[in-house]
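Final report, closing paragraph on structural work. Over the funding period we assembled a curated collection of sequence-structure pairs, and we close with a single example.
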Amino acid sequence: MRVLSGMRPTGKLHLGHYFGVIKNWVKLQEEHETFYMVADWHALTTGYKKVDEIPQNIEDMLIDWLTLGIDPKKSVVFQQSKVKEHAELFLIFSMITPKSWLEWNPTYKDTKYNLLRIADLSLMFKGGLRDHIKTFVAKLPYKVEDFDALEELLLDTISDALITALFEGYLDKEMFKELNVSKRDFYDTDTYGFLGYPVLQAVDILIYKAQAAPVGEDQLPHIELSREIARRFNHLYGEIFPEPQAMLTETPRLPGTDGRKMSKSYNNAIYFADSEEEVKKKVMSFYTDPQKLRKGDPGRPEICPVFFYHKVFSPSERTQEIERECKSGRLGCVDCKKIMLEGLEAFLKPIREKREQVAKDRELLIHILEEGSEKARQIAKETMEEVRLKTRVG
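Its predicted structure, as stored:
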């Protein structure tokens, strides 16, 4: 089965990337025909002002891919922008994709509002409007087929309109003080590319006629949109594209040093490029159970990020012992972190050494991307020949 996945080049990879994505990719390349894409065009959706960072980010990410087990002899490793056919098919798909499919994609608004820190404001508007909308819909002089669906549509639409009105200065500007977001920030993310990036994701999968894409649950709407676009194209012009299936992956989500999801943007990540001393410093700064203030206090390992790491990196018998000693208060947080660091370093040390070797051969990195991109382009060219024949364009 042909499988495709990709990653935006945001720089060096951290532990969360490995356990959330790369570990599964390495397994898949042993079982399927795999295509792994450096999604540099996707990096422009939110980072179009930081293009100078992209080349180095690509190199750093590729170094980590190879270090962690992605094998160019088993997988096609390629760079999205080196396969120009992606752009051509993106144009065609954009012509046939209803705008409402993109606006209703739950990850579009969630991503945009989270970037701008205005998700709470949207919820506040909806909460204040809900009763008024119910009354309004009940008094409509039209037959309503689905009251709940209409109410949600109106809530979404009016809430979005009020947020736009706020940024245009039609509402009380005091709300801005809590948001710390400018009008420029709002419109800088309100681009055609940001709205349409799920169409480009569909292209990434369909241009290679991939049958599956490994994703987490939060990405399921994107796979469903790819299936919808494939169905619509096939219906309009004739059968070309298979409908890709989602390969759901259940993976442990390693928390960052502050207990939140590990992320570069939160500055809470442990990177494979970190030195032993940097890792130690980060581990000793880890967030722990806030109620365990001193060694004798009983702890709650089930809520402690450090204990989560023990379950991943420490031997099972030792982990059980740590759980008992933490709950009883016999084990303090500092000692617990030191023990966890031993298991984490045993995992990281050989990876760190291999990474140093991989990073030395820059010519190999360039060759891998060039060769993989050429393999990918040959397949994409064949697909586009079929598309041009079916659409009578080009």
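The first strand starts at residue 2 and ends at 7. The beta strands are 2-7, 33-38, 75-79, 212-215, 245-248. We thank the funder for supporting this effort.
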